[in-house]
Automatic annotation (TrEMBL):
A Pfam family hit: LysR_substrate
Family the UniProt entry places it in: Belongs to the LysR transcriptional regulatory family.
Protein name: Hydrogen peroxide-inducible genes activator
Organism this protein belongs to: Pontibacter saemangeumensis
Claim: DNA-binding is one of the keywords in the record: yes
Length: 314
């Protein structure tokens, strides 16, 4: 058994396709297949069910692959020990970030981070929470930027800051005259929300379930669920009703639209924004540098806020 064979084993599990795994391992498919066959013969077990498409690990194969990931992670830590002795950070940092954070958080820190660490190649992907967790578990990402808690034993969470929710209300709405809003005042039938699959949608519904109203009027003839917070803003501005937004999304809002933003009454509902890494994560110095850069980039009132009333993701 060799580390190379274990890398091939993990690659096939990750991509569930021999040709794709071989491509990512920079070898030919026959080479990869031959090495895995040798591994199976040496161990006397079948690791993959090749009759299924996509290929899937056997039940025993799943346990062996899980241990192979641990072995490979520990081997990579040897390289990291050497890397950590160097004064300058370098290498690739693969970041996954949820769409309700990406357009508002990335611009705050990415320029200063890249100027401070010019030898680091940053790769950013916008993904939903479940996709980020899956890619962290398969070592396709180094770190995730998302909302916690996740309640996932394989993921370590490093809280960064607590971001308040605000309401965004059409000027013609009755609540537009209120300085602050209470969850019990929200009318679910007048609330524009994101598509299912976004954790932000679940948090919004959790806030509204604290005594929110339901009317029989609905939203006229338009039923629109968006994948973009910016689209929700435009619908509120041009149609009617309201939506809920994260605090960072209204930091740079034009002055003429600030009258649409209404904070919640205390205690304000918050969401916990964290860095997420796999329990056996590598690149610790890079992740620590990213953590420090993000915290330094956040407005002081958000950075200094303590955990008060965090809305659960579920």
């Amino acid at each position: 058994m060799t580390l190379v064979q274990l890398e091939y084993l993990v690659a096939v599990d990750t991509y569930r396709h021999f040709a794709t795994a071989a491509e990512h391992c920079f070898v030919t498919q026959p080479t990869l297949s031959m090495q895995l066959q040798k591994l199976e013969e040496e161990m006397g077990v079948q690791l993959f069910d090749r009759s299924r498409v996509p290929v899937r690990p056997t039940e025993l194969g799943k346990d062996i692959i899980a241990q192979a990931r641990v072995v490979l992670a520990e081997a990579k830590k040897v390289q990291e020990i050497v890397q950590n002795q160097k004064q300058e950070l370098s290498g690739e940092l693969r970041i996954g970030i949820i769409p309700t954070l990406a357009p508002y958080l990335i611009p705050l820190f990415i320029t200063s981070f890249m100027e401070r660490y010019p030898d680091v190649r940053v790769v950013v992907q916008e993904l939903l929470t479940d996709q980020i967790v899956e890619k962290l578990n398969h070592e396709l990402l180094d770190v995730g930027l998302l909302v916690t808690p996740l309640e996932n034993k394989s993921i370590r969470e490093l809280p960064l800051f607590y971001e308040a929710f605000v309401t965004y209300i059409n000027p013609s709405h009755a609540l537009a005259r209120s300085a602050t809003i209470k969850p019990a005042q929200l009318d679910m039938d007048e609330l524009w929300v994101l598509n299912e699959g976004h954790c932000f949608q679940s948090q919004v519904l959790n806030i509204c379930n604290r005594g929110g109203l339901r009317s029989a009027d609905g939203k006229g003839h338009l039923d629109y669920k968006s994948g973009s917070l910016e689209t929700l803003k435009r619908i509120v501005e041009t149609q009617h009703g309201m939506t809920l937004l994260p605090e960072l999304s209204v930091l740079e809002i034009p002055e003429e639209k600030r009258l649409l933003v209404h904070p919640f009454a205390d205690p304000q509902p918050l969401r916990e924004v964290s860095l997420a890494v796999h329990r056996s994560f590598l690149k610790k110095k890079l992740v620590q540098a990213l953590q420090q850069e993000i915290i330094a980039s956040i407005p002081e009132r958000i950075r200094n806020r303590k955990k008060e009333q965090v809305v659960a993701v579920k």
